[in-house]
Design brief:
heterotrimer; A mainly alpha; B alpha/beta; C mainly alpha; B: alpha/beta; D-Maltodextrin-Binding Protein, domain 2; six-stranded mixed beta sheet; four-stranded mixed beta sheet; 12% strand; globular; disordered N terminus
């Protein structure tokens, strides 16, 4: 809303209070998990629980970080999420460019298809996919996650990129045509560089989305070495064979899985917000 | 075999290559089996020098190594449940050392709860995925997996004289339609753990023998800081077993021998639920937090911390009471579960774990070797000595070393003769997951009354039995 | 996006030659084929396949059980005699209504705050993005630790504040569990809603507010007369997608509560998943899955066609 109006001190105070509440609301659970991961193994099982880790103990972290299975899971997730991002971007940018810039019959059908996929519950197709992948011996193969990963990230990819492409000034392309550039040249040499920031933003969104995928990962990967990070966290049973549910290690594993995402958020917060809203909100 | 997840062609080529190697190894292993047989009597003759004959059991595969220089060890993956003792890992190391490069055993725990392992194996077996070779099986898995055709029979893994060396109950639990589908690996039954010091201080003559005595003592001995009783009450297989034991104690059962559902006949079902609910909500000897004890170890934790007077726990947990950070070293003891009237030991649930072979294993013979090694007298004894996980072979209890270490060995030997199995039907797993556990959860959290719960449970079980 | 002026049919470079149009269309289709193919092969074909499976009785639990053709038998069974499905429907509906209500009220408050210029906007943006970026499974694990019956900080906090007299097993209670789960869901998704609403608010021209201020409208009036109506399209889109998300919800209950106690938090997706992969009833499970999809389709129809949510592709784009 307009910011030019006079702000009364009470309002200002209320405003700051609200801001503080929002920040605390968003970070408190995260903070608590960090605290839990830093507690001594026994201290976690104190009842009542203590608000601070005293003393700070990195044992849970050391155990989790050194756990080969967990390292493997992080690596698997990285490989899969990166592959999905690259493939989805390639397919998606071509499609998005056509939608944003070119005229062709059936555009609305394509858009409707994309919309329909965005509303697909993964559960609706998991039984046939499972049977299919089983027959193709793709169970425990990363392709089993990359294929559906690409399909399910395509809608977001296409929408976001379409929005970015549309925002590019049209005159440049037309100038290129006039200069005698072919369509493909125009796309790769004129549009490509211009769209790079948008593509990059989209890449971040896609990476986060596929990093977080759970349903297919849980179903198509059964080998411990092939698990992805979210599934590993869901099924985390502790580094050594402790006697009780190892909440400290679970917390450490949960935070460790999140670190890549938090870094992305910290570095690219503006882009992420722009990307999120570009695809979802139409003016 | 393909730990790096080699995609597509490479992987298939690898399989072909492997199966050729494996085929050769299997042929040798079959010959090796004959060689292993004479070795078994040797084990009998000198039970104390146990490790040697077992080495012999693995050794026959050895000759393959020399002629086939590049022969990579056959990798056997073991789908295991959660081992609370940590001994399996050590035992696997020992096995790999003894197997001398012929077999590499890869031990993979599949999650915290029994159902995690079951869910996981179901996925793998359905995918006809060879990534599991040996699979650990709770008693109810045996008929379930066998009926589904997911496991190989174990007729050739355990044969002849060797069969007489096991508790009959454990073998029955590993048999489906007259065929052995797994080999009993370790035994488990419940006990009532209690604090000797506290019971004595309270002026009681001994630990409780009946449910009422348990309630009376727990009520008297609990303090603001120490809970009276601890038991796994979560909506899990372990939780429903806690209840089964009270159900049996009240003279009821889930099904009769003809597999007709009898749960809603008589009042045992309702009575047993009411007793547990009273423990938790009226008399408050069992904290509501027990609803969150997902494993037996979660239930045992307060006991080890010195914060519970009584505990219903598997005997496999006994040695945990003396672990380094335990606050109750020397202050505890264990007796059979209490019963309704206190005139006899309460019914305990048979909690044997078995080892079987996945039907989709590419190396069934080597898997058999692994199973034979782990279920041998020597290894069951080693496991018992190291971690207190009781054996399926009664002879282990008579072993001098064992007797010297465990004063209660004789007591356990007898207890294990009378453990009660859960219904032996391939439908049990489904009944447990879809009906018994959820309804148990509803009743224990008082979302429904015991009467409603028993009716819902019995109806649901009948529906599943109809298929 | 609206900054790009609509194409004029009279634009000479494209209008003159019909071959030009043909070439453009051909080029466009070439660009589109890979994406459409991926969508068709991995989403629509399996959906058709799922429908085919749903017509059969398929039980993979027993070796060599033949498939039995049932027609719509699986659907009929579910509709007429499946209390568990009704329960799942009720659970999902409860979550949808309560979660969405809370999210949109809170999200609106967040957005109103975030839409103002103030120092430290970056900090707020990061704070808000973190719950959004977190893996649901991870957030479920976090809340599991927080809600723990004996060691949980939630109990400690409420106890210290004098709100409860004794610790409660929040996620093992027929009354509280579903609300505990809704709370965890609201925590994670409110930021997303807030971001979308903020974006929507920024598109509202400031002059409107200034004019209203001159007319002497109160802040309350300005919200209801200007912000809310102009935000309606954004709200509808966001609500539609959040609604769909609830019907897809599986990871939160599977990790946080396991669907329990009893089946108090078993959502439609979780129930379907269990029928397929725990009971191995691929036919009946596929029928449930198809039904879930149909429910979503109906909701989308209502939102887009009846309420007029302007989702990309819901209207002719390039007029």
């Amino acid at each position: 809303m307009g910011s030019s109006r006079r702000v009364r001190p009470v309002q200002a105070l209320l405003m700051h209070l609200l801001i503080a509440v929002i920040i605390i609301w968003c970070l408190a659970p995260f903070y608590w998990t960090v605290i839990t991961s830093l507690k001594q193994a026994n201290a976690i099982y104190y009842s009542p629980t203590t608000y601070l880790p005293n003393p700070v103990d990195l044992a849970s972290w050391i155990k989790v970080v050194n756990l080969p299975r967990f390292q493997g899971a992080l690596l698997n997730s990285t490989i899969i999420a990166s592959s999905v991002t690259v493939v989805s971007l390639t397919l998606g940018s071509l499609c998005a460019y056509a939608i944003a810039r070119l005229r062709f019959p059936g555009k609305n059908i394509v858009l409707a298809l994309v919309l329909a996929v965005s509303m697909f519950p993964g559960i609706a197709i998991i039984s046939p996919l499972y049977l299919q992948f089983r027959d193709w011996e793709l169970i425990n193969n990363k392709l089993a996650l990359i294929l559906p990963g690409v399909t399910f990230t395509l809608p977001v990819c296409i929408w976001t990129l379409t929005a970015f492409f549309r925002d590019l000034p049209r005159e440049l392309e037309e100038a290129a045509y006039v200069d005698g550039a072919s369509r493909i040249q125009t796309f790769t040499q004129v549009i490509g560089p211009l769209a790079a920031p948008g593509v990059f933003t989209t890449a971040i969104l896609l990476f986060i989305a596929s990093w977080n995928e759970f349903l297919f990962a849980r179903t198509f990967m059964s080998k411990v070495e092939e698990l992805t990070a979210p599934v590993a966290v869901a099924q985390f049973e502790g580094a050594d064979i402790a006697a009780v549910t190892p909440w400290g290690e679970i917390s450490a594993a949960a935070i460790a899985t999140t670190i890549p995402l938090v870094i992305l958020v910290l570095v690219f917060q503006r882009r992420i917000v722009a990307g999120l809203t570009a695809g979802a909100v139409k003016g | 075999m393909d730990g790096e997840g080699v995609p597509g062609m490479t992987r298939r080529r690898q399989f072909a290559w492997l199966s050729a190697v494996v085929g050769g190894a299997a042929a040798v292993a079959c010959g090796g089996e004959e060689a292993a047989k004479p070795a078994a009597p040797a084990a009998k003759a000198e039970p104390t020098k146990a490790p040697e004959p077992t080495k012999a059991a693995v050794a026959p595969a050895a000759p393959t190594a020399a002629p086939a220089p590049a022969a990579a060890p056959v990798k056997i993956t073991w789908f295991a449940g959660r081992d609370l003792t940590g001994f399996s890992v050590k035992q696997v190391e020992e096995f790999n050392k003894q197997a001398g490069g012929k077999i590499t055993l890869d031990y993979q725990e599949q999650g915290q709860q029994t159902s995690d392992l079951r869910d996981k194996f179901i996925l793998v077996a359905n995918a006809k995925d060879p990534s599991a070779d040996v699979v650990s099986m709770d008693v109810p898995f045996v008929p379930e997996f066998a009926a589904a055709g997911w496991t190989l029979d174990a007729e050739k893994v355990l044969f002849g004289d060797d069969r007489t060396k096991f508790y009959k109950g454990t073998l029955d639990g590993a048999t489906y339609l007259g065929k052995l589908f797994a080999v009993p690996w370790y035994n488990n039954g419940p006990g009532l753990y209690y604090r000797k010091d506290l019971v004595e201080q309270g002026g009681f003559k001994g630990p409780p023998k009946s449910y009422d005595e348990l309630l009376e003592q727990a009520k008297k001995l609990r303090t603001a800081d120490i809970q009276g009783f601890s038991a796994q009450m979560s909506q899990t297989e372990g939780g429903i077993i806690t209840w089964f034991e009270y159900l049996w104690g009240h003279g009821g059962d889930l099904m009769d021998e003809k597999l007709e559902v009898t749960l809603d006949k008589g009042t045992a079902g309702v009575d047993s639920f009411k007793r547990l609910l009273a423990f938790m909500y009226t008399d408050k000897i069992l904290p509501e937090g027990a609803l969150g004890y997902k494993t037996g170890a979660d239930a045992q934790n307060p006991f080890i911390e010195g914060k519970s007077v009584f505990l219903r726990q598997w005997t496999s947990g006994l040695t945990q009471n003396d672990r380094d950070d335990s606050k109750i070293k020397g202050k505890w003891d264990v007796v059979p579960l209490p019963s309704l009237k206190g005139d006899k030991a309460g019914a305990g649930c048979l909690g044997t774990w078995n080892l079987g072979t996945s039907k989709f294993s590419k190396n069934p013979d080597q898997s058999g070797e692994v199973i034979r090694w782990f279920t041998s007298q020597a290894q069951q004894k080693a496991r018992y000595l190291a971690m207190g996980v009781p054996p399926c072979r009664p002879a282990v209890f008579d072993d001098a070393e064992v007797k010297a270490k465990y004063a209660f060995a004789d007591k356990l030997k007898v207890t294990f003769e009378s453990l009660k199995p859960r219904p032996v039907t391939p439908f049990y797993g489904q009944m447990s997951a879809n009906v018994i556990q959820p309804v148990f959860g509803k009743v224990t959290t008082r979302a429904v009354t015991p009467e409603e719960g028993i009716k819902e449970m019995a109806d649901g079980m009948r529906k599943i039995m109809k298929g | 996006m609206n900054a790009v002026p609509a194409q004029h049919p009279s634009r000479p470079a494209f209008r003159k030659l019909s071959t030009q149009e043909f070439l453009e269309a051909r080029f466009a289709l070439t660009l589109i084929v890979p994406a459409v193919l991926a969508i068709t092969l991995v989403a629509f074909y399996p959906l058709a396949h799922a429908f085919w499976l749903s017509l059969w009785k398929i039980n993979l639990r027993f070796a060599n059980t033949p498939w039995v053709f049932l027609g719509f038998g699986n659907y009929l069974d579910t509709l007429t005699d499946d209390p568990r499905w009704l329960n799942a429907l009720r659970v999902t509906g409860t979550i949808a209504v309560s979660s969405l209500t809370a999210e949109f009220i809170l999200g609106m408050v967040f957005a109103l705050v975030m839409n103002r210029a103030f120092r430290g906007r970056g900090l707020v943006r990061v704070a808000v993005l973190i719950p959004w970026a977190l893996t649901t499974v991870v957030s479920a694990r976090m809340w599991q630790v927080i809600y723990h019956a004996t060691y949980g900080v939630f109990n400690r906090l409420l106890f210290d504040l004098g709100i409860i007299e004794a610790y409660k097993p929040w996620i093992i209670s027929p009354i509280f569990t579903i609300w505990a789960m809704v709370w965890a869901d609201v925590w994670k998704t409110t930021p997303f809603v807030a971001l979308l609403l903020t974006a929507g608010m920024q598109m509202i021209p400031g002059e409107l507010y200034e004019a209203a201020a001159i007319d002497g409208a109160t802040a309350w009036d300005r919200f209801w007369r200007i912000t809310f109506p102009l935000l309606r399209p954004t709200l509808l889109v966001a609500m539609l997608f959040r609604m769909i998300d609830v019907f897809r919800m599986l990871d939160l209950p599977i990790v946080l509560t396991g669907g329990g106690p009893g089946q108090a938090t078993e959502t439609l997706s979780l129930y379907t998943y269990r029928v397929i992969f725990t009971d191995l009833k691929f036919g009946a499970g596929s029928a449930l899955a198809v039904m879930t999809f149909l429910v979503i389709l109906c909701m989308a129809f209502v939102f887009i066609k009846v309420l007029g949510a302007p989702v990309a592709g819901s209207e002719a784009e390039d007029r």
